[in-house]
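Quick one, probably user error.
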């Protein structure tokens, strides 16, 4: 599969939202407004399969001005494209240091973050379940 990583446009929001909706039970809801803000703020990157012209993954983040720490708010890859290095490549676009949360139910997600060099520094209670907080310097 040939992949392209690029900033999305307004016309991509619906397709990105479908990926986000797939993970909504674990990650919560991602609004169209948040995705638009990511486009305007250059804090949203997509991965596109060039053979099918399909968006297969995305990462949305914000960098705090006061301390330059970046929090990943939403991150997903279509299940049919998992284990192909897409998530790893998407994370390369996110400014360091990175902080993110991963739900307790997502064992594969926690294993992925650890394999990418993230360190678990906290566990907190979320609305529905415990959240593991990870950091990558």
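Nope, works fine. Designed sequence:
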């Amino acid at each position: 599969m040939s992949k392209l990583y690029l900033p999305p446009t307004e016309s991509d929001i619906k397709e990105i939202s479908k990926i986000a909706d797939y993970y909504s039970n674990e990650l919560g809801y991602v609004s169209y407004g948040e995705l638009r803000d990511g486009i305007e703020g250059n804090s949203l990157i997509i991965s596109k399969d060039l053979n099918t012209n399909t968006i297969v993954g995305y990462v949305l983040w914000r960098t705090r001005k006061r301390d330059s720490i970046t929090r990943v708010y939403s991150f997903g890859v279509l299940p049919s494209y998992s284990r192909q290095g897409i998530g790893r490549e998407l994370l390369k676009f996110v400014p360091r240091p990175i902080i993110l949360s991963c739900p307790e139910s997502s064992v594969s997600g926690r294993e992925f973050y650890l394999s990418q060099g993230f360190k678990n520094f906290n566990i907190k209670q979320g609305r529905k379940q415990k959240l593991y907080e990870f950091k990558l310097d």
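The mean pLDDT is 94.
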